[in-house]
């Protein structure tokens, strides 16, 4: 979407008035250092792998119980969803309600104390553009956790970072919230052979929200 020059000038003056990276939209959360989850380095020892009789789907579904979430986990790799290639300069259509910080942004006051008249339609158009520009969607892709996890595939979230989410540029989309999903992890202990191995429940965090941040 292309904005009229006077609207861009207004935005630039607002940035100068409040500071380049001040929380004028309160978009400065502290992202979690544990997201996204770092890949686990597995030791390729076949003695530590589950055998065919350890992978009975009915038994494992019963063990996982109500924690099985088909929206975020799968036994086999799901087919990729149809998606159109995106222009890195384009933005996503925001979901949900417009943030109050953008709704309440004063577009009439300039750094020089002058009042600028902005029609209702132009104001709404500018707010929609600003919301779209600073919006940070969560991008989901299926990830293979390996044969020592059940279900084997998790739908992992990542923050969209093909371009800056601020104007002027400088801020990026970063994770601020996550949800935990319970998986089964094949765990072996002891040094003797055969080892004692069993499935144990483990928590796997999935990014659920991203925000524009310095």
Automatic annotation (TrEMBL):
Subunit organization: Homodimer.
Key words of the record: Chondrogenesis, Developmental protein, Differentiation, Disulfide bond, Secreted, Signal
Lineage: Eukaryota, Metazoa, Chordata, Craniata, Vertebrata
Disulfide feature: 136-173, 159-210, 165-212, 188-197
GO CC field: extracellular space
Disordered: annotated segments: 70-93
InterPro entries registered for this protein in UniProt: Cystine-knot_cytokine (IPR029034), Noggin (IPR008717)
Similarity comment: family membership: Belongs to the noggin family.
GO biological process entries: cartilage development; dorsal/ventral pattern formation; negative regulation of BMP signaling pathway; negative regulation of cell differentiation; osteoblast differentiation
Keyword check for Disulfide bond: yes
Gene3D superfamilies, alphabetized: Cystine-knot cytokines, Helix hairpin bin
Full protein name: Noggin
Signal peptide extent: 1-21
Subcellular location: Secreted
Origin species: Scyliorhinus torazame (Cloudy catshark)
């Amino acid at each position: 979407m292309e904005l009229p020059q006077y609207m861009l000038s207004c935005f630039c003056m607002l940035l100068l008035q409040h500071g380049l990276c001040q929380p004028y939209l309160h978009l400065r959360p502290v992202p979690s250092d544990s997201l996204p989850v770092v890949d686990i380095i597995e030791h390729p020892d076949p003695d530590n792998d589950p055998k065919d009789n350890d992978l009975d789907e009915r038994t494992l579904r019963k063990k996982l119980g109500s924690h099985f979430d088909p929206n975020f986990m799968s036994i086999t790799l799901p087919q990729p969803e149809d998606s159109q290639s995106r222009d890195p300069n384009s933005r996503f259509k925001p979901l949900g309600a417009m943030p109050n910080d953008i709704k309440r942004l004063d577009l009439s006051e300039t750094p020089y104390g002058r009042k600028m008249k902005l029609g209702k339609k132009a104001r709404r158009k500018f707010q929609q553009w600003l919301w779209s520009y600073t919006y940070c969607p969560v991008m989901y892709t299926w990830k293979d956790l390996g044969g020592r996890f059940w279900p084997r595939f998790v739908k992992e979230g990542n923050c969209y970072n093909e371009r800056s989410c601020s104007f002027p540029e400088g801020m990026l989309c970063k994770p601020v919230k996550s949800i935990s999903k319970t998986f089964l992890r094949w765990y072996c202990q002891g040094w003797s052979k055969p080892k004692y191995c069993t499935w144990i429940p483990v928590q796997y965090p999935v990014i659920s929200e991203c925000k524009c941040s310095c």
